[in-house]
């Protein structure tokens, strides 16, 4: 009886620890997205240029508008949450 209770407590502690680790990882990722919001554009690999099929011509990458950078998905989520929250406070 006593051992069963101890095992249950251990499982709760383990899952609690797992949850804590998950929260720490998520917060760390969000902090990284806050500090370094951009990643190199995947289509032009950060150059901002799109090579033409023929010759040495190039155009601006449409995906990043020639900036060569893209918002990280996490940062996009943060921006989305901020706009949602600001809408709520304005109301
Ligand atoms: Zn690009």
Please write out the topology:
Blueprint: H1 2-35, E1 38-40, E2 49-51, E3 58-60, E4 69-71, H2 73-90
Antiparallel strand pairs: 1-4, 2-3
Bound molecules: zinc ion (ZN).
Describe the structure.
This protein is an alpha+beta fold and 91 residues long. The chain has helices at 2-35, 73-90, and strands at 38-40, 49-51, 58-60, 69-71. Strand 2 and strand 3 form a beta hairpin.
Give the key terms.
91 residues, alpha+beta, 57% helix, elongated, binds zinc ion
Radius of gyration: 23 Å
What is the approximate shape?
elongated
Bound molecules: zinc ion
Whole-number mean pLDDT: 89
Oligomer: single chain
Which bin fits the share of residues in helices?
A: 55-70%
What class do helices, strands and sheet pairing give? alpha+beta
**Count of runs of 4 or more consecutive helical residues:** 2
Largest sheet: 2 strands, antiparallel
Strand content: 5-15%
Distance between the termini: 56 Å
What pattern of helices and strands is seen along the backbone? Answer: HEEEEH
Number of strands: 4
Residue windows where pLDDT falls under 50 for at least 5 positions:
none
């Amino acid at each position: 009886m006593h051992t069963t209770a101890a095992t249950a407590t251990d499982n709760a502690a383990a899952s609690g620890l797992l949850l804590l680790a998950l929260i720490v990882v998520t917060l760390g990722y969000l902090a990284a997205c806050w500090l370094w919001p951009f990643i190199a554009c995947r289509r032009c690999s950060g150059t901002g240029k799109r090579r033409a099929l023929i010759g040495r011509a190039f155009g601006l990458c449409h995906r990043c508008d020639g900036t060569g950078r893209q918002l990280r998905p996490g940062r996009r989520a943060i921006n989305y949450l901020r706009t949602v929250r600001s809408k709520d406070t304005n109301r």
